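User: Please write out a complete single-protein record containing the residue sequence and its fold in token form, without commentary.

AI:
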Amino acid sequence: MLVLVLAACDERVALEPGPGGIAPAGQTPAEEASQTAEAPHPDAAWFSVLGVTEATGNLGIDLVESQEELSAFWDAYGFDQPAPGLALDEHVVAFVRRGDNACPDEAVEVRLVDATLEHTLLAPPGGCTDPYIVWAYTIAYHRGGLGAEVTVRSAEDDGPDGELVATFVLSPYDGPRAPAPTPPPRQPTADEAATLFADHPIRRCAELEDPREDVFARQQPRDGSGEPTGPPLSERVPEDVQSTYAAEHPDEIGWLMVDQAAGEWVVGVTADVDGHRERLEARHPGEHFRIVETPHAQRDLAAAQAAVRPLHGGEDGGGPRARVRRPGVQRPAR
């Protein structure tokens, strides 16, 4: 009876070049503080994610050293924007094709170890649909620090199936050294998180007690058999409570859950706990109801979800932990 709407991600994103990717513009000081980074790792290398797009064909890695090659690969993968202008006398660009679900991992760090560029990839927050998709990452590296030969290494997919490894011989280089790498962002500290949410209309889940937690904790069958325990429950109850009865009390009905082990229907209401218990037991003789207080009515939650859904960039919205976009701010490449 609990519905989780999974997030869908954009198929194509592209950014202007920058060290380690580009952070969204227009951030508040508190938001900038939340992305404070640790010092770079001694092996960290400068890189820039130029774009990520859904691709076709086999998994693998290609490396380009000219604008012509870059444009050819860029057009072949179907980016809507023109290929970025990049000083390819000082850079090389890898096209890494790896498998993932509908929300590709984000490249957050590249380290140069024994002439090998090793990538750290992290999944974006939130739920996601789970098809197998080949994603092409377009990643630029500075020639400074790279020798005559370089190996590019990346996880093959988001599972334990293996790695993609390719070695390339580079043209001679005597240009400037690579710029300092940008450290990967870290999670905010407790104090920084408190600053982020100070006087903000959105409250953190940890600040609110969830009256459903007791029911969640009892979902596993007590006898260990894998089968639900407790007496059978009527299918007419959810049909009534979630539709007819909720429509009769739109300001007070929050949610319905079943505690199978206890043989009870658990209903969250915003007021009149005793009154709802009496009415529901009278409507469904022989059924047992546990009525608890909850902070929000179902109608209000639906309105809040409708307001948040457009920020996910799709009609289906996202799960409770899905990434959202602020209007007017471009989302960084995943």
Summary: The two ends are 32 Å apart (CA to CA). The helical segments are 29-34, 67-76, 190-197, 213-216, 236-248, 273-283, 298-308.
